[in-house]
Amino acid sequence: MSERPSKIEPKALPAGYELQCYTIKGVLGQGGFGITYLAQDNNLEREVAIKEFMPRDIAGRGNDYTLQTLTKEMSEKLVWGMERFIREARTLSKFNHNNIVRVYSVFEENNTAYMVMSYEHGISFHEKLLRDGQPSEEELMGLLLGLIDGLEVLHEARFIHRDIKPGNIFIREDGTAILLDFGSARQAIGEETMTLTKVVTPGYAPFEQYYARSDMQGPWTDIYSLGATCYKAITGEPPMDSTFRNRHTGEQAIDEIWNELDKHSKRFSTFLLRAIEHSLRSNHKERPQSVQEWRAMLEDPSVSTQTQWRLAASSYNKKSNSRETKEKKNNFYLPLAVGFAIAFSVFVYIFVTYF
User: For 81, phi and psi rounded to 5 degrees?
Assistant: First the structure.
């Protein structure tokens, strides 16, 4: 029987630890819901990445390396979240796309679950931006269109990433981009435990991801996050968090985003900047509803302009409707005024002529 931890500690497995047919070589990354290791696959003699499900707010590790929880309620939530982590891994294993991380297998051990993935050589987009700064439009478009191709495959299978940000995009040595660290299991845990704000990444999560159920989210949710990633690449900072932007009127929120993007119009085409701005609309119905639609905006300036009008902000529509109403009133009274003026002129003419 292992010793129950006195507090939650995200202690990683040590180098040399044997995990089924894998040997842990070191830690690649660590977050609030898991630890990713570099490991050696002893059967196939290749390096792999292994993600361990470890929600630090729910569980810690005992002396025998098994996950332990402090209360029975937490134990139930750990099992509930682990089931969704396994389900996510099984779904991802069905995809074989150059821009989606390849999942080989998933298994349970140490009272938790492990997802075995391909190990990619390169750096995260976050690290690349820190190292190289603002990319060129050609470079950004190349990365963006590749990621959109990957998202199209995911969305066709009714699967949403839910956590796109620079740190979850990996740039291979050949320059291609790949989506990592999906957030479906984390989103589910957040909804179950009412800790959704701890799950999402401020600046990259749209408003509906904070307050709407997962069935209210869709391709437009990933489009927002990928658009926010592009905004970060161009301006150097992520956009204002959607919970703050949503307090402003539609037109004001749009202007805040556009004014910052427009500062970079010398290096980036207007239609690209407009397409990014549309992806960041607070109201998800005003964003492109599919990656196919967004791709068309990004690749064809004429489509971008047409879609720009179709996706106009509600505040703009209200102003237009108000203007149309005034015009209708004017159109109603104008003939009356003209008719009265003509009648009066005729009356004056007759009076002067005959009297």
Answer: -70, -35
Domain count of the fold of the chain = 2
Residue with tokens 């203007």: 323
Distances (CA, A) of 272 to 39, 142, 208, 297, 308: 40, 13, 24, 8, 12
The DSSP 8-state label assigned to residue 21 in this structure reads: T
Q: What is the pLDDT of residues 40-62, one digit of tens each?
A: 999 999 999 999 998 887 888 88
Residue 336 belongs to some domain of the structure:
no
Asked if 140 and 211 sit in the same domain, the reply is: yes
What are the tens digits of pLDDT across the range 312-337? 434 444 444 555 555 555 555 555 55
Q: What residue ranges in 8-127 does DSSP mark as E strands?
A: 18-19, 22-30, 34-41, 46-53, 59-61, 67-69, 103-109, 112-118, 122-124
Q: How far apart (Å, rounded) are the C-alpha atoms in residues 312 and 308?
A: 6
The Cα 101–Cα 333 span in angstroms is: 66
**With contact defined as beta carbons under 8 Å apart, do 271 and 277 qualify?**
no
Last residue of a domain, one of 118, 137, 165: 118
b/e for 290-325, b at 16 or more Cβ within 10 A? bbebbbbbbeeeebbeebeeebbbeeeeeeeeeeee
Q: What is the CATH number of the domain that holds 181?
A: 1.10.510.10
Cα separations (Å) of 354 from 96, 239, 348?
96, 77, 10
CA distances, 136 to each of 132, 141, 142, 147, 233 (Å): 11, 9, 10, 17, 10
Whole-model pTM over 0.85: no
Q: Is 10 contained in some domain? A: no
Decide which of 84, 99, 118 is a domain's last residue. 118
Do both 109 and 143 map to the same domain? no
Three-state DSSP state, 353: helix
- For residue 23, the enclosing domain spans 18-118
| Bridge partners for 49 per DSSP | 38, 117
162/223 Cα distance (integer angstroms): 10
Asked whether residue 114 falls in the same domain as residue 209, the answer is no
Asked if residue 37 is part of any domain, the answer here is yes
